[in-house]
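agent> fetching stored inputs for the arginine docking request
agent> found them:
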Amino acid sequence: YQGSITIPVIINILEDANHPVTQANIDSQIDILNDDYNDLNPATGAVPSEFNNAIANVDITFVLAGINRKVSTKTSWGTNDAMKLSSQGGIDATDPSFYLNFWICEIGGGILGYAQFPGGALATDGVVIGSDYFGRNTLGGQYGYGRTATHEVGHWLNLRHIWGDGNCRQDDFVTDTPGSDQANYGCPSYPTVNCRSNDMTMNYMDYVDDQCMYMFTNGQNDRIRAIFAAGGERESFVI
Ligand code: ARG
Ligand code: ZN
Ligand code: CA
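agent> prediction call returned; pasting tokens
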């Protein structure tokens, strides 16, 4: 699928008084997603020349389509999808074939967020983000700049971590991200060498600090576009 893609977004918030999610958090998150998926992140100017030709404009626009709030006293939701089901105290998804559902809650365990890959159960399809890491958020520290959502939406769009979650031979199925065998953290200096090549530490699908990730590649864009093509798992968003 080659055209521009528009994704309507529903924000489901399990409200915790100590970790408020404000309209400003929400609006800034939508803006950050639109920057990152349209090659408008100003930080992208710092991409090393060796990776310059790989920088992609993914051309996806995210539009806020609804906000659901539910007060909750639960402070550690975990990663078993309870936040996605009203029967378990959460909020049911809104029509996941046509909306990207976010759930914002206290996940616990130091987890910033998690996502469901394309092709899974509709009822749990979407992205979960810890309350302090949603949008521009002073509670989030080095993760308070909205890139957890950029990264998790990458998974929702079928992207793997750039090190392939394994050794040097484990692929992310993208040819223009150099092979690596580990996640990078903090704000790595260039070059960071693993598997005899320079890691693309500034890719949104690594684990670095929010302000140190600022590119997707053309190969990642191809992988994303494949799921919107005829017969692809997210074709329903473009027809
Ligand atoms: N650890 C999470 C994951 O694997 C998200 C990492 C996001 N990184 C960030 N700088 N916000 O899905
Ligand atoms: Zn990840
Ligand atoms: Ca690769």
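agent> quick read of the result: The mean pLDDT is 98.
agent> awaiting further instructions
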